[in-house]
């Protein structure tokens, strides 16, 4: 069975109350439940995690090797700062989709730069919580066509 890991970075634990005008009212627990339903429908085994710590995210990415077929990564603000996350993705042979709830390109200029896009299969942003379901479908399609 295909296994996909969804990893969430800093401050995403506060979804629902964090800047709802930008990120909506959906909580991370709501998103996890939605992803678990979607994964069940698609026949995917799902891992789901969140950390506010860069090194913990690096560890999760390393741990995905041999356990998960793909990673969906909403790295939050580390997207725009982290060479370590980019190197972690480059160091494991696991395809990654970069995900953002908001359209980062329509926001402040510092969000236009991503350190991880260059090592991603593709990027999904601007579709809110629905982006997670889109990313699961996109990863499954990518794995089917590349495997
Ligand atoms: C985000 C966008 C980032 O710029 C921001 O730092 C986040 C959330 C998003 O999902 O839209 O924390 O990754």
Automatic annotation (TrEMBL):
What Gene3D superfamilies does UniProt report for this protein, alphabetically? Dehydroquinase, class II
Catalytic residue positions: 23 (proton acceptor), 100 (proton donor)
Key words, A-Z: Amino-acid biosynthesis, Aromatic amino acid biosynthesis, Lyase
- Please state what class of enzyme this protein is: lyase
Describe the reaction catalysed, as an equation.
3-dehydroquinate = 3-dehydroshikimate + H2O
What is the name attached to this protein's record? 3-dehydroquinate dehydratase
Superkingdom of the source? Bacteria
Family indicated by similarity: Belongs to the type-II 3-dehydroquinase family.
One example GO MF annotation: 3-dehydroquinate dehydratase activity
Show the InterPro entries listed in the entry: DHquinase_II (IPR001874), DHquinase_II_CS (IPR018509), DHquinase_II_sf (IPR036441)
Q: Which organism is it from?
A: Roseovarius lutimaris
Subunit-level organization: Homododecamer.
Which positions are annotated as binding substrate?
Answer: 74, 80, 87, 101-102, 111
Assigned EC number: 4.2.1.10
Question: So, what pathway does this thing act in?
Answer: Metabolic intermediate biosynthesis; chorismate biosynthesis; chorismate from D-erythrose 4-phosphate and phosphoenolpyruvate: step 3/7
What does the record give as the function of this protein?
Catalyzes a trans-dehydration via an enolate intermediate.
Q: Where is this site: Transition state stabilizer?
A: 18
Gene Ontology process terms (BP) = amino acid biosynthetic process; aromatic amino acid family biosynthetic process; chorismate biosynthetic process; quinate catabolic process
